[in-house]
Amino acid sequence: MAIEITDANFEEVVLNSTIPVVVDFWAEWCGPCRMITPIIEEMSGEFEGKAVVGKVNVDQNPGVSAKFGIRNIPTILFVKGGEVVDKVVGAVPKEQMVSKLNAIL
Questions:
Q1: From 14, 21, 23, 33, active-site residue
Q2: What distance, in Å, lies between the first and last C-alpha atoms of the chain?
Q3: Is 30 a catalytic residue?
Q4: Class of the domain covering 3-104
């Protein structure tokens, strides 16, 4: 299951992670966000131990959303070594997200 990432735990979970992190910025009212939720959950299981997969609710965590300039959702950031190395904006096929994650593993 994808980890809930918040303003409070973002640094610990994402920036200090020793393995790559996939961060899905989403909101309850966002249709495309709901469309990719099953993909994010699948990736969480498939990459367990190799990558952290988490979700940030932009309505409840405005600090981290603003810090990374999240203006459109869903936005998925790929973070390695505390740095954003890739991102996807909008609902995209699972293969595209898996390919981007595999590229940084």
A1: 33
A2: 19
A3: yes
A4: alpha beta
